[in-house]
Amino acid sequence: MVNFVGAGPGAPDLITVRGQKLLSEADVIIYAGSLVNPQLLSYAKEGCSIYNSARMTLEEVLEVIYAAEEKGLMTVRLHTGDPSLYGAIREQMDALDEKGIPYTDCPGVSSFCGAAAALNLEYTLPDVSQSVIITRMAGRTPVPEKEEIASLASHQATMVVFLSTGMLEKLSERLIAGGYTADTPAAIVYKATWEDEKTFVCTVGTLAETARENNITKTALMIIGDVVSHSHYNRSELYNPAFTTEFREAKK
Ligand code: SAH
């Protein structure tokens, strides 16, 4: 049995209760060492075999899983944040399907949620944006042309950009090409929920400069949109006294 587990964004107490339980029951843990907080490994039971997948290929990860399966052992594959985002889990699941090895997927708190919390931010403010676009700049992994930053930026929705800290000049340029102004509010959140978390509120035009001045080169998310400044928005209808909902009558 293999359990894919979301480790959460960094703070060891932001793994789910279920994820922590699975970690404590695992015979084998393969963790994404580049971003998973090693403190989470203290939940492992004695004698658990622990592997850091940062130094392994997909084939090597699968070898460890297959060997554990042969011995009837339980493996936790620990991914940063939530496994469904940039987690490369599909290729592992497909290989397990091929061998008939069963698995589950335990969700985690994604870093984009950790980053919002770090800024006390609501991504979906009424009359500002009701959508969150999660994307990245093309790097070694290409991005389909239809999802190019400028075309996504044309929606003027809240955007959260992963995996792009080294490309901020280009990111600004593409955001502006898509219709954001240079003075649109933006933020950089470095290591959200870790002890050394840092947040910087800036603008679309000053993303690269802000990162440079603060030596931020990786493990950061960029958040774009007027929700960052929350200078204007309408209050919710859900809590509006004049509004009847399924659970509450409007007040006269
Ligand atoms: N599955 C993960 C994302 C993995 S991709 C999730 O749900 O969060 C790795 C990228 O995620 C990093 O390059 C960075 O952009 C972002 N990231 C991961 N943890 C982060 C954190 N604590 N703070 C800011 N960004 C983080």
TrEMBL record:
List, alphabetically, the InterPro entries matched. Answer: 4pyrrol_Mease, 4pyrrol_Methylase_sf, 4pyrrole_Mease_sub1, 4pyrrole_Mease_sub2, Cbl_synth_CobM/CibF, Siro_Cobalamin_biosynth, Uropor_MeTrfase_CS
Q: What class of enzyme is it?
A: transferase
**Which Gene3D superfamilies does this entry report, sorted A to Z?**
Cobalt-precorrin-4 Transmethylase, Domain 1, Methyltransferase, Cobalt-precorrin-4 Transmethylase, Domain 2
What Pfam families is this protein classified in? Answer: TP_methylase
Q: Name one GO molecular function term.
A: precorrin-4 C11-methyltransferase activity
One GO biological process term: methylation
UniProt domain Tetrapyrrole methylase: residue ranges: 1-207
Enzyme Commission number, as recorded: 2.1.1.133
State the UniProt keywords alphabetically: Cobalamin biosynthesis, Methyltransferase, S-adenosyl-L-methionine, Transferase
Spell out the family assignment given in the record's similarity comment: Belongs to the precorrin methyltransferase family.
Please give the name of this protein: Precorrin-4 C(11)-methyltransferase
- Which organism is the protein's source? Marvinbryantia formatexigens DSM 14469
Kindly list the organism's lineage: Bacteria, Bacillati, Bacillota, Clostridia, Lachnospirales
